[in-house]
Amino acid sequence: MSDVAVAGGGLIGLATAWRAAQRGLSVTVVDDSPGTGASAAAAGMLAPVTEAGYREEALLRLGLASVERWPAFAADVERAGGTPVGLRTAGTLVVGFDEDDVRELTALHAYQRELGLDAERLTPREARRREPSLTPRVRGGLLVAGDHSVDGRALHAALLQAAQVAGVRLIRDRVTALRVDGGRAAGLETAGGTIAAGTVVLALGAHSGRLPGVPPLPVRPVKGQILRLAGATDLLEGTVRALVRGRQVYLVPYAGDRLIVGATTEDRGFDPTVTAGGVHDLLHDAIDVVPAISELELVETLARWRPGTPDNAPLLGPGPLPGLVLATGHHRNGVLLTPVTAEVTAELLATGVLPEVAAPFTTDRFGR
Ligand code: GLY
Fold first, then answer.
1. Residues linked to residue 259 through DSSP beta bridges, in sequence order
2. Which residues contact 237 (CB under 8 A, 6 or more apart)?
3. How many whole angstroms separate alpha carbon 364 and alpha carbon 112?
4. What is the CA radius of gyration of the chain?
5. Could you please report the per-residue DSSP string of 90-158?
6. Which residue's CA is minimally distant from atom 1 of ligand 1?
7. Which domains does the chain have, with CATH numbers?
8. Pocket around ligand 1: residues whose beta carbon is below 6 Å from it?
9. Could you tell me the distance, in angstroms and rounded to a whole number, from the CA of residue 92 to the centre of ligand 1?
């Protein structure tokens, strides 16, 4: 029997397991295919400011708390895991393609300034000085120096290693149900048997809302289609986000010559289809903003599901059953929120106390 069983070996589950093991707990992670869900699709943006939606100040504060932790977290994972995680600290440029897009950027900038966030308005010429591959048609920009990125797949590989070195047991099996005993979470049922544990951490991403045995949770799948291209050496300095005739696209350079173009946002349940329209829209907008993208090799297309919640913020802390802890619902910010989620969840597991920074994100907020 383990102190803790973690359902889900994606970024959130592994980082939480690793931190909990570092606190002296015995931890088992269960996943039949770790790192092939949303963690495999994520562009890796660490972008609390450029992801901030209107009236999402609580989530913004959590994102800022997590981005602050990122440099030390990355160094720690690299040391323990033995491989680089591709942290890029070049900042993020947001550009507007036409006059309406720039009007929207102006409103966004006013909101960012009202919140005291670090975002600098750029002329088209200044934007192109920073990113010379941008089309001359760009009408204006915003530089957010504190929004960074990491290579999500490299991070997953390093975390897998770090967790195992710290003593985490990984069971490659399908989680079929939460094991409940006397009204308390008591482990996990899997295709191959039962894993008994004192506490269960639910870190199944978009699937968290449909594990038998778990009381209903406000988590739904939000589909994202995303593209990976090769041949982009020196194409971009940092992340470029663009509004193109009202539609959003982001371009995230990673690992040498690679570039991620993302992402659609679709409420279509667990639809796994990569569609012609989705790929078309992403490439069309990306090429409008950076024309040289049309010369790159399209090496991968995929669709995965973000774990969406009604307020776009995660579900952290005690779950709806004794013995069940939530680390899910990270929606568009799973990679960004990995360090803070792992830290607060490990603290709760080790001491029984949920740190203050996570208090606004317990699931009972929806009943308040
Ligand atoms: N974080 C970007 C996305 O979810 O598409």
1. 229, 253
2. 90, 93, 130, 131
3. 29
4. 20
5. S-EEEEESSHHHHHHHHHHHHHHHHTT---EEE-HHHHHHH-TTS-TT--EEEEETT-EE--HHHHHHH
6. 332
7. 2-80+152-219+310-366 (3.50.50.60), 92-145+221-308 (3.30.9.10)
8. 43, 45, 224, 262-263, 306, 332
9. 14
Q: pTM of this prediction? A: 0.97
Angle (CA) 72 85 81, round 5°: 80
Give me ligand 1 centre to Cα 307, in Å.
Answer: 11
Q: Give the Cα separation of 32 and 140 in Å (integer).
A: 46
Structure tokens at 162: 């770090």
Q: Tokens at residue 262, please? A: 């993302």
What whole-number distance in Å separates Cα of residue 80 and Cα of residue 96?
A: 41
Distance between alpha carbon 41 and the CA centroid of its chain, in Å? 9
- Pairwise CA distance, residues 4 & 83, whole Å: 26
Average pLDDT over residues 307-318: 98
pLDDT(368) > 70:
no
Report whether 49 contacts 117 (CB < 8 A): yes
Residues 271, 46, 174: CA angle, nearest 5 degrees: 40
pLDDT tens digits for range 137-154: 999 999 999 999 999 999
Two tokens at 2?
A: 């383990």
Q: What angle do CA 28, 29, 31 make, to 5 degrees?
A: 145
Ligand 1 atom at shortest distance from the alpha carbon of 47: 1
228: left (phi over 0), alpha (psi -120 to 50) or beta: beta
- Cα separation, 169 vs 149, whole angstroms: 29
Contact 292, 36 (CB under 8 A): no
Give yes or no for a contact between 238 and 251, defined as CB atoms under 8 angstroms apart: no
pLDDT digits (tens, 9 = 90+) for 329-348: 999 999 999 999 999 999 99
